[in-house]
Recover the amino acids of this structure.
């Protein structure tokens, strides 16, 4: 089975790298990607990739913690249950929403104060207020 | 090469077959063909050019003899043919070019097909061998590109001598000495160099140098950071040793030993709490990193709602298998016992379920996804609790650390202020100083460690980019080398070309001077000719000044003849000079000078002259060199010309 890769736009690669350094809340590109994808969908910001850059493989996603997030976004975006079986479609949708949400994620994390605290604040308080 | 003979058939005003032989004798190398205006001199000249090169001007009327066409029936054919015998380096050739014309119903005619060229090489014994590529053979005798410098209209040759005709002179020199071949090679190499230059621009980025500089800079920074790190580590170690020494000395003081031990315990405990806090902080970060689980809780619930709606509508069966439904239909009995006969309502319902059923595998995946999505809420709740708990733990630890800090500070204060032992206070001050120093050094070491890690990552990234660019740069270097080779080769050819052209020009100029000296009449004011660097054919007068504008027509003809003859000599082409009406515009004294000298300047001379062109002294001077002479007899009654020997 061919290896499936997950892509981001090369223009935001520096943002991804910043968000996984020691001063920031994320420990992997995968986690940044998933958070950005959710924010992208929530803000209806779906942006096609202009210059693709391969950052990790699909196999990196955890079936318990991560795949459901991808599937939720894809089902809501398409309205089609069968999309859960189409990995290419799943990735295509999530990549574009992640591309649209990465800037929002960065603004949440890099607000004044400590980055980890900012994101925790968002998760526990601010995020709950969103529809 | 020399022309031996020519036979023409039905060519212009020549009806039937007409023949003439050219003199190939070394001494009597002149053939004279006499004819008045319109007798057919030019037609013979044209026949020669058409026979050898297939050249026939468009503006000179029909090629085919009109009498022959008139004799032909409608639909009949008349063949036009020119046959030329040639001797070249001892070998004899017979060339034949022919074409057929067909008479149309309206009494006009058209060429039936393209002319055919045929050539035999004839041996001394008379046997003939077909020459495979006759046109190429003709080119080896006299290239078509220089034909007009050997076969020319005498009245037009003076163009070389006209002012502002340097281009014609240059072109003539180029062709006659075959500079074209070198020029083509140079042009081709220039094109190759240009192509490589274009390719070079797309490949060579100049990045390698920049990346190398960046690499060097980053490596230097990293090395510097490492040096500082090593230095700080040493300082930290030294500081720790000093602290240990102070602690040891303080421990030796009986009066304060208890306080020292208390403080040691507090500090050890504080260190443990700090480690635990770091560990808890790492755990928190690990959980927070998967914050998307919390973020997607609501999305998962919405997605589950979508799936449930689909199921309710029957778009996702309630777990029924396709095969199970098919079995029911086959048995025509439902699991409730009801009948599923064809046409029954129950059967229609089951058939509808079967038609909307997904393939088993897909159905499994959708159902599994629905299950996982439902578990997101649980996972999200757990994650939230973990984050809250970990933050609380960190808070507690921070408080504990703070508490211990206070206790440690109290001990230190007590030791400094209340101890009766004299040395304790200064030791304690030193200890605090060392502690502060240790704290600062630990921060520096950590900071430098992070810096080194960051620079290591950056250096690796630059290395990757350099490897990629190096591949391109290698290609760029290869293209650059080829570009330079092509460029330098083109320049070398240019140099050779310039030298060759210059030598050829100088040789032609020198030869033209010699010929001019031989051809010009004695009382002429003009002493010499010169072919300048910019290809001006110049005549030098007795005062040593250029005088071309003042030349008469005859003098221009002599000048041009000098140039043409010189070119032929320099080129090394042994070819006859064929001149049509060479002396028409010359005064007799000028003709005499030319006719005396011209036969010596060429291996074979063929002159088409008007009756009055070659008379008197001019004829007398030429007489001893004439091998064959012909007279063109034009008949007014038939409109045709015949070639006569007397």
């Amino acid at each position: 089975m061919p290896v499936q890769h997950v892509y981001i736009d090369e223009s935001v690669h520096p943002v991804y790298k910043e968000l996984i350094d020691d001063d920031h809340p994320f420990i992997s590109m995968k986690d940044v990607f998933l958070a950005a994808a959710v924010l992208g969908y929530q803000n209806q910001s779906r942006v096609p990739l202009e210059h693709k850059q391969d950052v990790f493989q699909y196999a990196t996603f955890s079936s318990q913690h991560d795949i459901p997030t991808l599937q939720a976004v894809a089902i809501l975006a398409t309205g089609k249950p069968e999309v859960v079986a189409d990995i290419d479609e799943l990735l295509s949708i999530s990549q574009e929403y992640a591309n649209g949400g990465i800037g929002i994620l960065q603004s949440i994390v890099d607000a004044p104060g400590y980055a980890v605290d900012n994101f925790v604040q968002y998760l526990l308080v601010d995020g709950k207020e969103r529809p | 090469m020399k022309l031996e003979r020519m036979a023409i058939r039905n060519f212009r005003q020549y009806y039937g077959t007409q023949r003439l032989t050219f003199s190939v004798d070394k001494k009597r190398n002149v053939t004279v063909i006499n004819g008045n205006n319109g007798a057919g001199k030019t037609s013979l000249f044209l026949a020669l050019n058409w026979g050898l090169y297939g050249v026939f001007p468009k503006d000179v009327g029909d090629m085919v003899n009109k009498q022959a066409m008139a004799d032909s029936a409608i639909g009949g054919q008349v063949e036009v043919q020119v046959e030329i015998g040639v001797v070249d380096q001892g070998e004899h050739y017979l060339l034949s070019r022919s074409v057929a014309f067909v008479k149309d119903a309206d009494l006009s005619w058209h060429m039936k097909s393209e002319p055919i060229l045929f050539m035999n090489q004839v041996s001394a014994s008379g046997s003939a061998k077909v020459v495979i590529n006759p046109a190429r053979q003709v080119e080896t005798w006299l290239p078509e590109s220089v034909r007009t410098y050997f076969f020319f209209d005498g009245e037009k040759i003076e163009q070389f001598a006209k002012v502002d005709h340097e281009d014609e002179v240059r072109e003539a020199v180029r062709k006659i000495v075959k500079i074209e071949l070198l020029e083509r090679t140079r042009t081709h190499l220039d094109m190759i160099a240009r192509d490589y230059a274009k390719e070079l621009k797309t490949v060579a980025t100049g990045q390698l140098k920049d990346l190398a500089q960046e690499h060097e800079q980053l490596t230097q920074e990293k090395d510097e950071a490492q040096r500082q790190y090593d230095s700080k580590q040493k300082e930290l170690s030294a500081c720790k040793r000093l602290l240990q020494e102070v602690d040891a000395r303080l421990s030796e003081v009986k009066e304060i030993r208890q306080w020292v031990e208390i403080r040691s315990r507090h500090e050890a405990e504080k260190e443990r709490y700090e480690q635990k806090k770091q560990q808890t902080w790492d755990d928190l970060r690990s959980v927070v990193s998967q914050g998307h689980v919390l973020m997607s809780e609501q999305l998962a619930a919405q997605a589950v709602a979508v799936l449930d709606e689909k199921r309710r509508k029957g778009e996702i069966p309630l777990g029924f298998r396709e095969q199970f439904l098919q079995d029911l239909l086959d048995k025509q009995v439902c699991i409730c016992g009801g009948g599923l006969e064809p046409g029954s309502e129950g059967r229609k319902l089951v058939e509808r379920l079967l038609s909307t059923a997904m393939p088993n595998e897909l159905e499994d995946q959708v159902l599994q996804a629905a299950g996982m999505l439902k578990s997101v809420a649980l996972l999200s709740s757990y994650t939230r609790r973990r984050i809250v708990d970990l933050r609380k733990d960190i808070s507690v630890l921070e408080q504990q650390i703070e508490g211990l800090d206070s206790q440690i500070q109290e001990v230190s204060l007590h030791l400094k202020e209340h101890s009766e032992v004299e040395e304790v206070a200064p030791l304690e001050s030193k200890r605090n100083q060392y502690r502060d120093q240790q704290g600062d050094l630990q921060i520096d070491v950590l900071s430098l460690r992070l810096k080194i890690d960051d620079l290591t990552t950056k250096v690796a990234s630059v290395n990757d980019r350099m490897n990629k660019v190096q591949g391109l740069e290698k290609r760029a270097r290869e293209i650059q080398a080829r570009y330079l080779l092509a460029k330098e080769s083109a320049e070398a050819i240019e140099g050779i070309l310039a030298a060759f052209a210059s030598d050829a020009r100088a040789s032609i100029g020198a030869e033209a001077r010699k010929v001019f000296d031989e051809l010009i009449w004695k009382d002429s004011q003009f002493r010499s000719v010169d072919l300048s660097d910019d290809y001006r054919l110049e005549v030098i007068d007795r005062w040593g000044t250029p005088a071309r504008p003042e030349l008469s027509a005859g003098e221009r003809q002599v000048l041009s003849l000098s140039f043409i003859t010189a070119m032929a000599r320099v080129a090394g082409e042994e070819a006859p000079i064929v001149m049509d009406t060479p002396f028409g515009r010359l005064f007799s004294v000028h003709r005499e000078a030319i006719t005396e000298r011209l036969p010596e300047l060429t291996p074979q001379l063929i002159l088409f002259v008007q009756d009055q062109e070659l008379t008197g002294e001019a004829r007398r001077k030429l007489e001893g060199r004439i091998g064959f002479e012909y007279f063109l007899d034009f008949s007014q009654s038939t409109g045709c010309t015949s070639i006569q020997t007397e």
In short: Residues 87-109 of chain A form the longest helix (23 residues). Residues 38 and 73 of chain A are 7 Å apart (CA to CA).
